[in-house]
UniProtKB/TrEMBL annotation:
It comes from the Bacteria. NCBIfam families: PRK11038.1. It holds the Pfam family DUF2496. This is Primosomal protein. The lineage of its organism: Bacteria, Pseudomonadati, Pseudomonadota, Gammaproteobacteria, Alteromonadales.
Amino acid sequence: MNKPSSLDQAPLHVKLAVDLIMLLEQNQVSPQQVLDALEIVKQDFQHKVDSEVE
């Protein structure tokens, strides 16, 4: 019988974060490049959220 891991029980946004971290680390992306890219992604998705509210 397999016991579910903590990640299996985690909220979707936590699972997504773990997947993104693994992807970025496997591709050896520098931490500064990751932060720069995440700022762009955050701005883009913030615009999408703001558009849904209007």
